[in-house]
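pasting for ref
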Amino acid sequence: MPACYLLVPYCFICPCRVEREGACLEARVVVVKVLILGVAQDAMRAVDWDGGLFDYILAIEEAWHLRPDWTHMLHSDSLAPDDRPVLLEAGQQVVTEADYEPVLTHFGGAAYTGSDLVLAASYWALAALEPAQVFCMGCEFDSPGAPIEGDARAGASRSNGARDLTAKARRLEYFASLCGCAIANLSSESSVLPFQRATFDGLDQVRPAYPSEEASMVARQLEQQYGDPASPNAQYPCAQGMAEIDAAWRRCFTLRDAAVA
């Protein structure tokens, strides 16, 4: 069990593992693939893909219009009712803030997870669908401060450095690594999302990205030092605190890549 796992204060249990007497035992027997489909222009490339290659297709907000075979549609409360599906086919589920907000809280709260919908969708998928591989398509951001997908909460705060999307994505990747889950970007467009790139023809070649355990421990310790913003009546860490935490998450994978090189 990675040493960094011991620092997780959110009672998080890897869905792909069994917790027994303090030991994490590998339990996954099926490789579950999840496609997260966003609304960026590049998402149109996925319209004609063979949906049978994925176990679940999670569409973010209006992306459900792109394919009729989506299994989950995730949206914030701010999405207009006219833009939401009304008639659901068998096996389809709508995921609302009431569903994914507790998951974000479970993983530390929006201050640490980030509140953009692609991150909310990824955390929710990690907890609810128990994937071995998560693939993002059409989830690009125009810039670090302007997410195409929108905010996961209608009134979410954007202060105190909570908009470092690259750092938030690295944090997500850390939690995914605890479950042996790989996250990859199928888009060829530029993006602040730092996930490994993959192609539609190479889905099975994607493997989890594991961060530096030592650097991950530092990042988790910083979060504990600045408090738990997900607890009742708690406030976001100060701007300096968030900047330190985000920088620490960025270093987790930078140090790993340097060590491999």
